[in-house]
Amino acid sequence: MILTDLTILNYKNIAEAELSFSPKLNCFIGGNGQGKTNLLDAIHFLSFCRSYGSSMDTLAVRHGSEFMSLMGRYGREDGTDEDIRIGLKAGQKKVVRRGGKAYRRISEHIGLIPLVMVSPADQILVTGGSEERRRFVNMVICQYDPAYTEALLRYNKALQQRNVMLRQEEEPDPEVFLIFEEQMAREGDYIFRRRSEFIRELIPIFQQFYSRISGQAEKVELSYVSHLQRGPLLEQLQSQRFKDRAVGYSLHGIHRDDLEMLQEGYPVRREGSQGQSKTFLIALKLAQFDFLCRTGSRTTPLLLLDDIFDKLDADRVGQIVKLVSEARFGQIFITDTNRDHLAGILSRMEGDNRIFRVENGNITR
C-alpha cells in the first residue's frame, strides 16, 4: 500500500497542507515542536481513525477551529486506488468515508491500510502498565483479524456489565451473572488463543531484529502472561465472585493480560539503559512490520519513523539505517532534526525520495 497524496485541514498545528509523496522514502526535517510528529499522526489517523498519542478526538482539532478533515489517496499493489476521508466537527462524532461512502461502524476500517509507527511515545510500552502492552498487541492483531476486533468489543461489553453488577448494593441475580461470565469466557478464550499465537510467532522475529541492531550485545525475551494459562476463565470468574464484589471489579480475565519485556532475564524497565530500551522498542516495531507483511491483506504496511535515532550510539544508528534501507520496507515516512541521519539513509537507498521542511505547521518540499 502506498500513500500518494495527503490533504490536511486544521489538524493539530497544521492549518492546511496538500502533499504528494514518494512511493519509497519521505523525509521531514525541522526543529522540535514544529509539526513533524503531527504530520505522521495525521497519516496514522487515516489508518486507525484515532491519534497515535491520544484517544480524545477533540485534541486533533487545531486550536481556534471548529473542525478538522483528512483525505488520503492510496495506491494498491494491484493498481487500484483507495480514497479515505475523515471529518471531525466539535461536539459531533467523526465520520470516516471510503470511496465516498461512510462506514456503518468505524471498526470495519481497521486493517484496510496496515501501518507501523515508531515514536518516542512508545517508551510507555516499557515504563507504563499492562494496559499499554495489551493495546500494542490488540493493535497488531486487529489489523489482520477482524474477528478478533469483534471478540474484543463483545468481551469488553460483557466485562463492563459484570462490573456494574459487582458494584450493586443488593445481591445480583446469579443467573444474570452467569450470562455475562459465559460471554467473557467464550470471547476471552478466542482472544487468548490469538494473542498466544501472535506472540509465539513474533518472538523469534523480534530477537533477530534486536540482534542485528545491537550487534548481539544483549539477550532479550518476550513473555505472555495471562490468567487463562491457569485454566478455564469461567471457573475463575465464578470462584472469585465474592472477592470481586468486595473490590467492585473483575480481577480475572484477558483484560489483565501482560507482555513481559525482558533483557538478560530481567525487566527492561529496571535493567535497560535508555539506548537499550529504545533498541528494544524499535526491534519490537520492526518485528510487528515483518509480521503484518505476512498476514491479513498481505500488503506492505506503511512505516512511520518519528525521531528514532535519539539516545542511540553511532553503531546502532548505523544498523537501523542499513535495515530500513532494505527493499522489503516499502514506503517510509521519517522525521528527524538532524539531516546527517537522513543523509545516511538517502545514500544507501535507491529510487525516488522526497525531503520536506516543517516549520510552525507549514510543510514545504
C-alpha Rg (nearest Å) = 22 Å
What is the averaged pLDDT score?
A: 89
Supply the number of helical segments.
11
**Strand order of the biggest β-sheet:** 2-1-4-5-6-7
Number of strands: 15
Low-confidence stretches: none
- The helix/strand order is EEEHEEEEEHHHHEHHEEHHEHEHEE
Strand content: 15-25%
How far is it from the N-terminal to the C-terminal residue, by CA? Answer: 22 Å
Largest sheet features: 6 strands, antiparallel
Give the % helix: 40-55%
Structural class: alpha/beta
Which outline best applies?
A: globular
Per-chain topology:
Blueprint: E1 2-11, E2 14-20, E3 25-29, H1 36-48, E4 67-75, E5 81-89, E6 95-98, E7 101-102, E8 115-118, H2 124-127, H3 130-142, H4 146-166, H5 174-214, E9 220-225, H6 233-239, H7 241-247, E10 258-263, E11 266-267, H8 268-271, H9 274-293, E12 302-306, H10 314-324, E13 332-336, H11 339-348, E14 353-359, E15 362-364
Parallel strand pairs: 3-13, 3-14, 8-12, 12-13
Antiparallel strand pairs: 1-2, 1-4, 4-5, 5-6, 6-7, 9-10, 10-11, 14-15
Helix pairs in contact: 4-5, 5-6, 5-9, 10-11
In short:
The chain has 365 residues and is of the alpha/beta class. The chain is built from eleven helices and 15 strands.
Question: What does this protein look like?
Answer:
With 365 residues, the chain is an alpha/beta fold. Helices cover 41% and strands 23% of the residues. The protein contains 11 helices and 15 strands. The chain has helices at residues 36-48, 124-127, 130-142, 146-166, 174-214, 233-239, 241-247, 268-271, 274-293, 314-324, 339-348, and strands spanning 2-11, 14-20, 25-29, 67-75, 81-89, 95-98, 101-102, 115-118, 220-225, 258-263, 266-267, 302-306, 332-336, 353-359, 362-364. The strands form 3 sheets. The chain has a 6-stranded antiparallel sheet with strand order 2-1-4-5-6-7, covered by helices on one side. Helix 5 packs across helix 6 (233-239) and helix 5 packs across helix 9 (274-293). The radius of gyration is 22 Å and the shape is globular. The protein starts with a strand and ends with a strand. The model has no long low-confidence stretch (mean pLDDT 89).
